[in-house]
Amino acid sequence: MPRHDTSNAPVFSLYYIAIDTEAGVTPEQFESFVRHKGVHIPCYPGWRWTLLRGLRGERAGQYLMLFEIDDVGQRDRYLAADGNQTELARKFWSDRPEARELVHEWRKYGTFSELPTIYTDYRLLAENKKSTVADGPRYQERGPGEEPLARVIGIHNLALRPDVRADTFESFIAENHHRIEDYPDWKFRLLKGERGNRLDQYVVLMEIASLAALHAFYPDADIATAEAAAFAKAYRDTKQMYEEWKQLASFSGSPQIYTDYLSVAESLS
Predict the structure, then answer these.
(1) What is the reported pLDDT for 234?
(2) How many angstroms separate the Cα of 9 from the Cα of each of 60, 68, 78, 99, 228?
(3) Nearest residue to 126 via CA among 186, 173, 84
(4) Block mean pLDDT (10 aa), the chain, length 269
């Protein structure tokens, strides 16, 4: 069957980031550098990034760079299929010597979002457009004495059941994701690995407006609150859709591999 057209949908690219603990770099030093200087590293047009720190799950305490790119065309203008920079990307950095200096300084703390860092580009298969989570910054400093705005990003790895074809699962999602009702201040997206190190791997990317919104329903990993149970009872068709999903593929949450990340910095340009 034909692939669903996602050429105009955003691309999500994930890069594993590691700090140089052998050199004595601490998480606090790294995050301070990124917030005060690293955020001024310019992005390609149509790109933005968020630095995430693992909150709980498989990669607790580890870092990830989440890039959201307007569409496939904007990605391909700057990043080749093999992960190398295009000529346009090389010119972008050549024209910005001050940016190259900042990248050089970043590398003194840890890895940067470029080869040989492990990464995957994911295409968007489905999202909950009814979610109360609006487009906007994932991390933003606020006034004196105020906690920064910091969204939670859950990355949940999925796998197909035996003998289930990819197009069968993807068609089910395309035809049924409108049945999903997210918790208030939560937003569901389903992604599929397209380029990089984890090809054909599905992930649920769950964007949550704040730690408070996470804890309202799951204060501990996979331990639901009474509010979560009441929500499931109120939206029985969503629960039924999830049961149908589980006949085709694994589902987000325990016992699947996942990490909930907290946003700790976001690009400014």
Answers:
(1) 94
(2) 30, 10, 17, 28, 30
(3) 173
(4) 61 97 96 97 97 96 97 96 96 97 97 95 95 94 89 96 96 96 96 88 96 93 87 93 96 85 94
Residues in CB range of 45: below 8 A, 6 or more apart: 74
User: Cα–Cα distance between 213 and 144 in angstroms, integer?
Assistant: 23
Give 169: exposed, middle or buried? Use CB within 10 Å, 0-12, 13-18, 19+. Answer: buried
Tokens of 56: 């709980």
Looking at residue 73, its amino acid is G
To which residue do tokens 């989440």 refer?
A: 66
Judged by DSSP in three states, 168 sits in: helix
Q: Which residue type sits at 152?
A: V
Q: Quick count: other Cβ atoms within 10 Å of Cβ 44?
A: 20
- Among 40, 11, 25, 256, smallest CA distance to 158 is for 256
Q: At what angle do helices 87-94 and 97-106 cross, to 10 degrees?
A: 100
| The predicted structure's pLDDT at residue 86 | 98
Structural contact between residues 151 and 214, judged by C-beta atoms closer than 8 angstroms = no
Could you give the CA distance from residue 266 to residue 146 in angstroms, rounded to a whole number?
18
